[in-house]
Fold this sequence. Notes:
The chain has helices spanning 7-10, 22-41, 46-102, 104-115, 119-122, 152-200, 218-224, 235-238, 242-245, 277-285, 301-315, 372-383, 405-417, 460-463, 513-518, 520-523, 530-541; strands at residues 204-214, 250-255, 259-260, 274-275, 289-291, 320-322, 335-339, 342-350, 388-394, 421-425, 430-437, 443-450, 452-454, 464-476, 482-498, 503-507. It is of the alpha/beta class. Helix 2 runs antiparallel to helix 3.
Amino acid sequence: MSDSRSSRDEYPNYGSNANRPRTSTRRVLVEDDRAYAYSRQSGGSRSRDGASRERNANQDRGTTRDRDRDRNSNSARDRNTTRERSRSTRASSSTRESSRSRNATRTSAASSRTSMRSPRAAAPRGMRSGSGSSLPFTTQPSGAAAKLPFDWRLLVIAAAVLVLVIAVASCAVNRNAQAQREAEAAKELEAANAAAAAAALEPKTVSFLAVGDIVAHDEMIEQSKGLNGKAYDFNHVFEPMLSRLAPYDLTSVTQETPLVSDESKVGGYPVFGTPVEMGDAIVNAGFDIVTSATNHSMDQGIDGIFDTVNYWKNNHPEITLMGLHDKAEAADGVTFIERNGIKIAMTDLTYDLNGFVLPEGQEYAVDMLSELDAICKNVEAANSEADITICYVHMGEEYATTPSDEQREVAARLIDAGADVVLGSHVHVVQPMEEVTTSAGNKGIVYYSLGNYASNQANVENMLGGAAVLEITKTPHEDGSAETSVTSHSFVPVFCHYDYGTTQMYFLDDYTDELANTHFITQYGNPFTVDQVKGIWQDITGQSA
């Protein structure tokens, strides 16, 4: 670039005092003042004026040349300064970028210091600080007005630290809460174990009631036919006793005759076939156990036995049927029932089948007294598993109110095998209850006959039956053993009422003379009173009614 370039090209803001060369300007002003003073002393002559003007012109030209030289010198110096500053800026920027990649914190601090430098320190030489000229780079204000850069990474780190602190505190709180819960759970478990241990030592009881034979004669069947829109409805038979049967834990009844669904097989004495609806009524009355090994089991042949078993199995599997079987593997002779933590073993035997013989290969269908030796072995084996054993025996001389020697012998053998209670039926009348001690020194309770429960026979003695009532108690010991026994037993009279319209069962203490006056036996010409019935009971059993 030549020196002849105009001042305005070199200094865009030449008109401002800030961009004028200071030395040249001062010299021109001094020389102008001197010339002006000289012209005033000369008196204004033309020659002097002309000489003065020429001198002044020469001086102006010299001054102009000096000023141009000064401007050129300053311009070169400014360009060098600008180039140096540009190189310095690029080097500084490169240094800052390299430093920022190594250490974000150090770079941020360096950047802050750079941005807070004084504008005067950054201004080029020869330029007045604070002038309106444009500088080749931008500066930042210093002091309180400076703005520090915002670093999101610091905020993330702070948030992470806060989350960590909260997590640690939460874990501590959770550990404390968990420890408290575990301590409370341990206390509850300890209390539960203590309660369980105490409960385990509390005696357990089962209340038990057993009644005698249901013999569905023709009168009972006809009375129940078509009732309540059903083919047969025997619910009325048990209705008066329902509320008093309900409290017992276990109840049993002997269904002496086979159940049939074929109407052509329905009938009474002497070859019985009882409608299956009798079974429904037995269940509705609340009985749990049905014994069926009787002298009438084969009245409808082997098919009658299988029909009876299948009826109970398919319609009322909750009922425990004893004495009859449809498979050989089911005929082990012992049935187990558990109530209230007490396990009871039971057997059911009959002395005969009224002359009928079980088919060859199907002898398992009825549990027979002729197999007493095998039954006793099964009872002995069951004793180690059961808490108590009850044996039902259908035997004896019909209508005899005292037990036969055979009955006593069978009862003693069962007691020696391990039976605690023997319950008899079949003879259609009640027989005494005794506490028996065998010759071997074993003890048991024997009800030789519970008599009829529901029937339509023609004598008062046949209408009078008995209910064996037992309380069985199991007393645990701290060593884990337990002792089970019949802690109370009684014999309670029941009575069957029937007239021309219905047959119903009562406990004798619920029966009245008004009912006795309508009984079929009274109408048939043999009147009786409740007191007379109680006398008969006492004479036979030796107990008051």
